[in-house]
Design a protein that fits this description.
heterodimer, A: 9 helices, B: alpha/beta, Rossmann fold, 5-stranded parallel beta sheet, disordered C terminus
């Protein structure tokens, strides 16, 4: 447990200090959400309609942007090798690194999204559904980002491959995320159904990402 | 304690690096890995550390802590320093201490004279100072098996003496060291030459 806490604390400290991954992602998220209403123009009805989808896409792309910072620095400076000598299996290290990424990057964006939705004239009735669905979904996004980052670790300029690999993994989260946070009052039943599917996706990612990520890292370290 | 390697084979990138390598190292013994670049010294150390899995053969540490794996009983200091540039020297060591289970920060800072640099970010350290930071892990957490890959690279004369002192203290306490190095450390050790594959070297004390 100490080892995992040490990994999470260190990654959070690095994210805050370096301003690297976390800062870039948050800045990108904010920039997209400020630029889109300016680009679309003063059609407030249109803005309100596209608001949930826009917020989700901004979240997805921002998480993706910071994904290559999850394992690449540890791989480059040799920390990853030393981590295999620790008392915890690589699977739990992947989980801890995903947790740190979530806390430093995805979670702040998910928490800020409903408020930034005001920039997009988001229907106030959707604030709660949006927050409720983004909170768990952001965890799934961080987990999947860790998985893809583990697969592409060690590839210089692996960003392109990372995006292409992440795309199919992120699609279900996007589809059910938007379904869980869009529409009017008549759709509240289907919104809760979509939220349940989203939660199932989180559980699925929680199971798959640590094992697949650790397997990818092992294959790379060989 | 005894490290026993039997019929070890290593293939990297489709090329046979070495095969049929056997080695026995007793507690208190230093094994010096020699050989030209690309002979597989680093590969051998990584295999023993468990960072990579061997393609063939067995590696076992007898007489250690049976509850722990070999990886959990060894230190591996490779060519990279495993230091985070944006953390201070003390934060870097504290992390590895916590991660590797229980570290003695003061002892580690003392071992390579890093006490005065403890509050500095690793980014401002010189190559040699960063190397000392990496080597302090040896003093930070007590582990019986040390695997050192070119540990003296970048070190000044005084730090090299500190390393030698640390190594001889470790050997005196019954630890095992395998070191790949091109320089003379001034420590008595068994030489194992890697090179012409397949290699068969037997080292014993």
């Amino acid at each position: 447990m100490t080892a995992l806490a040490a990994v999470i604390t260190r990654d959070l400290r690095l994210a805050l200090r370096q301003g690297g991954g976390a800062g870039i992602a948050l800045g990108f998220f904010l920039t997209v959400l400020v630029l889109i209403p300016l680009g679309i123009g003063p059609d407030v009805a249109l803005l309100a309609r596209i608001a949930p989808g826009t917020l989700w896409i901004a979240l997805l792309l921002s998480v993706l942007l910071s994904a290559d910072r999850i394992f690449e620095p540890d791989h480059d400076d040799g920390s990853l090798e030393i981590m295999t000598l620790g008392p915890v299996p690589l699977e739990l290290i992947v989980l801890a690194k995903a947790a740190a990424h979530w806390l430093a990057t995805a979670l702040p964006m998910a928490l800020a999204a409903p408020f930034l939705g005001l920039l997009l004239n988001l229907d106030p009735a959707l604030l709660l559904p949006l927050g409720l669905s983004m909170l768990p979904a952001s965890l799934a996004l961080s987990l999947l980002a860790s998985l893809v980052a583990a697969v592409t670790v060690g590839l210089k300029r692996g960003g392109l491959l990372l995006s292409i690999l992440a795309l199919p993994l992120y699609l279900p989260a996007l589809i059910f995320g938007v379904a869980a946070s869009a529409g009017d009052d008549t759709l509240s039943a289907s919104r809760s159904a979509a939220l349940l599917i989203l939660l199932a996706l989180v559980l699925l990612a929680l199971v798959i990402a640590p094992f697949a990520g650790a397997a990818a890292l092992r294959a790379h370290l060989r | 304690m005894e490290l026993q390697i039997t019929d070890l084979g290593c293939i990297r990138g489709g090329r046979l690096v070495f095969a049929g390598l056997s080695l026995r190292a007793d507690g208190g013994s230093l094994t010096l890995l020699r050989g030209p670049n690309g002979a597989g010294k680093t590969s051998l150390l990584r295999l023993i550390a468990g960072v990579a899995e061997p393609d063939h053969g067995r590696i076992a540490l007898h007489g250690g802590n049976a509850a722990l794996t070999l990886s959990q009983q060894c230190h591996f200091v490779g060519d990279r320093d495993a230091a985070k540039l944006h953390l201070t020297v003390a934060e870097n060591l504290r992390f590895w201490g916590d991660f590797l289970d229980g570290g003695d920060l003061d002892r580690a800072l003392d071992s390579f004279g890093l006490k005065a640099l403890a509050g500095l970010q690793a980014a401002v350290l010189s190559t040699g100072q960063r190397r000392r930071l990496a080597l302090s892990r040896l003093a930070l957490v007590a582990r019986p098996l040390w695997l050192l890959d070119e540990p003296t690279v970048g070190l000044d004369a005084q730090s090299r003496q500190r390393l030698v002192a640390l190594m001889s203290a470790h050997l005196a306490s019954g630890g095992i060291i395998l070191a790949a190095t091109h320089v003379e450390l001034g420590l008595a050790g068994i030489e194992l030459s890697l090179g012409e594959a397949p290699t068969r070297g037997i080292a014993a004390q």
